[in-house]
What we know:
- The termini are far apart.
- The chain has 382 residues and is an alpha+beta fold.
- It has helices at 3-23, 37-45, 47-67, 70-93, 96-99, 136-142, 227-233, 255-258, 293-299, 369-375; strands spanning 108-110, 121-127, 130-135, 144-149, 152-159, 164-168, 171-172, 175-176, 179-185, 188-193, 199-201, 206-209, 223-226, 238-240, 278-284, 287-292, 301-306, 309-315, 322-326, 335-337, 340-343, 346-349, 353-354, 357-358, 364-368, 380-381.
- The protein folds into three domains: 3-94; 108-246, Rieske Iron-sulfur Protein (3-layer Sandwich), CATH 2.102.10; 269-381, Rieske Iron-sulfur Protein (3-layer Sandwich), CATH 2.102.10.
Amino acid sequence: xxxxxxxxxxVLALVAFELANIYFVMPFLGSQRLDSLSLAYAxxxxxxxIRAACVALMLAxxxxxxxxxxxxxxxxxxxxxxVAVAAYAANFVMAADKMxxxxxxxxxxxxxxxQVPLDGLVVGIEVNGEARxxxxxxxxxxxxxxxxxxxxxxxxxxxxxxxxxxxxxxxLDGKAERFRLVGMDRWNALLEDESTGSWWRxxxxxxxxxxxxxxxxxxxxxxxxxxxxxxxxHPASLVMQADPTFADSYPKDxxxxxxxxxxxxxxxxxxxxxxxxxxVGIEIGGRSKAFDWNxxxxxxxxxxxxxxxxIVLVLAADEASFFAFERPxxxxxxxxxxxxxxxxxxxYGLSGRxxxxxxxxxxxxxxxxxxxxxxxPETERY
Length: 382
């Protein structure tokens, strides 16, 4: 091969690499339907040696291309521009952590100073007696927020393409790990830990590539409810506020939260059991079950069992806030009177609290059916 052709080959290889490096981890046509996670991770981990090899190939042919005349000199310029554009687009424009940045300042305010709409949805947590609420319209953009609640480090995550809110402990190997957004796989956000560069799936908290593959982040119980409902149960809760730096990036309406959006990636299908339909998923003891949101809206309270554990799933009057609890026994079936769960064991508020004691909460998540089915392939349907 003539040296000048080495330059052309290096340009084509480097442009193709930069595009491939983002194609497999971003929602391009067909990319999320491929079983390409291992390839995507290998390309990313070996990105600098690959780039160095491509640049070496280009440099090997520069002198010969320059001597070859005006046409090749123009090719040198065009090739260099193509490489620069591809590299800039892949690493600064389309890179996930550049498109969705972390808060510059995490502002938390009590109810009296809150500026977030009360009918907006939040991911709420209570740790060691301290409560926090993280609005979907904020964490849906940031994808992850680090905080300390009740003296405990927490990692609050959300993926709008899967409609999955998860809260984890970031403690790994005895230290609070930091993460950055890498992209997505099977439509779900991927996070990379700072210490080892391992990739973690947001919907499950499991490391899917890298040295920590197979490890799982500890889950911290959370609930997705309207802020008004959360504050009624946790009046002393602090509420995350918008970071002014990202005022133009946050959603301008509540279409995503309300399910009225029809966008390709984050829109909702109002029918049941379609890719973008809503379900409430519950997993107990390695077994899982999905409950159709439309049916929950009609019935408001569902008595069932998952993995042999009797549970009750209830929807508040706002048709947005939902809760799941263990039933004391299989024979106790709850009915709903106003906003009170009534059963043989007593009466309970939607917080699960009652005069005779408290119901045990069950982890339940509202998400798109395609997401729950992808990461719980053996799931049952109610």
